Amino acid sequence: MANQQANKKLHGFSKSERLCNFTLKRLLFNQGESFAQYPFKIFWKTLDPNLEKIFFHKSVTCFSDFTPISGSGQQNPSFPHRRIPHNAIFSHPAQCLVGVSAKAHKSAAMRNRLKRLIRESYRQNKAPFYSFLTNSNLFCLVGIIYTSGQPLRYQDIESKIIVSLQKIEKKITEQQSR
To answer: How many whole angstroms from its chain centre is CA 102?
Structure first.
């Protein structure tokens, strides 16, 4: 029973896995890296587990020996005094944002359909990416923007999502080896 619940959580795409925090979105698009993988533009940024540096800037006391406590959900050592927004705390190794341009697709129904297909393919293929991030002790922000003017089939979208996640893994390992 417990194994089924863990398996269900791994293959779900919960609210806590979606990138909803404006500060983290701004950080992703301003300081993150990007690459194009037709029909997507992929933005990504790895983060330090100590989110106080991002949210409190200069007024924070830096903790050099900080290690996040797994299971508690608290990722800032000075929790009672300063609070990180609840939608910014990582309960999963990555948070993902999906977008489709209204300029390329005028119909809201088509944009929503494409976003559903992208989220579903990400949900189905995120397990190796999550295990890589967990083994590397990293948190990652991912933005997937659909740039094509033509809607693609699910199989094409899924194959490109798989390639994109593998490319992010490759770039992270290159960064770590430097």
So the answer is: 22
